[in-house]
Specification:
Layout lengths: L1 H10 L14 E3 L5 E3 L23 E10 L27 H13 L4 E7 L9 E13 L21 E4 L4 E2 L4 E2 L1 E8 L2 E4 L3 E6 L12 E13 L6 E11 H6 L21 H6 L15 E5 L2 E6 L10 E2 L19 E12 L1 E5 L9
Parallel strand pairs: 6-18
Antiparallel strand pairs: 1-2, 3-4, 3-17, 4-5, 5-6, 5-9, 7-8, 9-10, 10-12, 11-12, 12-13, 13-17, 14-15, 15-16
């Protein structure tokens, strides 16, 4: 393009004696003609920090305003294995997208389940590329008192500001000095991709009997991607994919057992999310390299766990940690595998104003 501009400038040379007689982007040469100045090359980019150890809230902060499960054919290849040629996406949990996404949305809009995303280490001026940044995730808490979810994502009519949050203490470690869930990443042409894998927690759904207690899904071996513009006005096309470990799902109560529901096959108040998923499929990601573990149900309750054994004829039984509770076999270290999952998200700019765990009050 610079060569085209130079050739055009040659074709349009005009006579001159002083620079001021030429156009603003031209100079007067000794030969008495105006000539366009080629722009200087940009200075070499210096990558100053990746933001991994930066103080929480010191980077670009956003609050998630769109969130849900991707359908089963979208997400990431988590394990490098394909069911068949061209079918390598791992997202078994996506089978529940139609059921859960509206419930995720209700919790988010009501202010009970808030997620903050921070991009730290971006070098300014931002050119659309940065080889070393960090993306951090936090559980958010509305900072308004009284509780006011209407200004969580935009400035409401008659108000002057919005989108101010606290970081929930559970999202921090090192005595509150750093994000618990963070991923090194790179940005190319405005698209961010994590360069390592990590762990994070994402919101579950509200139970029928509690408006504030939300169990969180733990996502291990996770990957992140997202897109944003040069003005940081919005994060879009966000995706997070990873593995829901068997043990975490067993520790999460089945929210559908508080009322009669087909997703509570056992009818027991002690039923878990693990039993919900096992009603549809078995673990599909081998995390310990010994073949896929298995879990058997009877009348909606866990009765036996089977360790992976690399294709052996009969999988060895994993004993329960508590013999009086067969389901505790799923807490065994041998049950290391999990269920693949992939989420979508979008986010708008936000501000972190502190750390706290204030229970929501009646909305303003």
């Amino acid at each position: 393009m610079w060569l085209v501009a130079l050739l055009l400038s040659v074709a349009c040379d005009s006579e001159c004696r002083l620079d001021r007689e030429c156009a603003s982007n031209q100079i007067c040469l000794n030969s008495g003609v105006c000539r366009q100045i080629l722009p200087p090359p940009p200075p070499p980019h210096e990558d100053r920090t990746d933001g991994f150890d930066d103080v929480p809230g010191s980077g670009r902060v956003f609050v998630v305003d769109q969130f849900g499960l991707l359908p089963p054919n979208q997400g990431f290849d988590l394990d490098g294995r394909c069911l068949e040629e061209g079918n390598c996406i791992d997202n078994a949990f996506g089978l529940f997208a139609a059921l859960l996404n509206d419930q995720f949305r209700q919790g988010m809009l009501g202010g009970e389940t808030l997620v903050l995303v921070e991009i730290a280490g971006i070098d300014l001026p931002f050119t659309g590329d940065d080889a070393n940044v960090t993306v951090k995730f936090y559980r958010g808490v509305d900072s308004d008192r009284p509780f006011f979810p209407a200004n969580n994502f935009q400035i409401p009519q008659g108000e002057t500001d919005c989108c101010k949050f606290l970081i929930h203490p559970s999202a921090l470690h090192h005595n509150g000095a750093q994000a618990r869930y963070r991923f090194r990443a790179r940005i190319e042409d405005g698209k961010l991709h994590s360069t390592d894998r990590g762990t994070l927690r994402l919101p579950g759904i509200l139970s029928d009997t509690s408006s504030t207690s939300v169990a969180e899904f733990e996502l291990r071996h996770a990957l992140v991607s997202l897109t944003f513009d040069s003005n940081f006005n919005r994060l879009s096309d966000g995706q997070v994919g990873g593995v829901l470990p068997i043990s975490n799902l067993l520790a999460m109560p089945n929210p559908y057992c508080e009322n009669t529901n087909s997703l509570c096959a056992s009818g027991s108040a002690s039923s878990s999310w693990l039993e919900i998923l096992l009603g549809s499929f078995q673990p599909d990601v081998d995390m310990d390299g010994d073949g896929l573990e298995g879990v058997d149900l009877s009348r909606g309750r866990i009765v036996q766990c089977r360790d992976g054994c690399g294709g052996c004829a009969r999988q060895p039984r994993v004993p329960p940690l508590d013999p009086s509770h067969p389901e505790t076999c799923a807490f065994s270290a041998a049950m290391a595998d999990g269920f693949s999952a992939a989420y979508f998200f979008g986010a708008v700019p936000a501000t972190i104003v502190g750390v706290g765990d204030y229970p929501p009050e009646e909305p303003k």
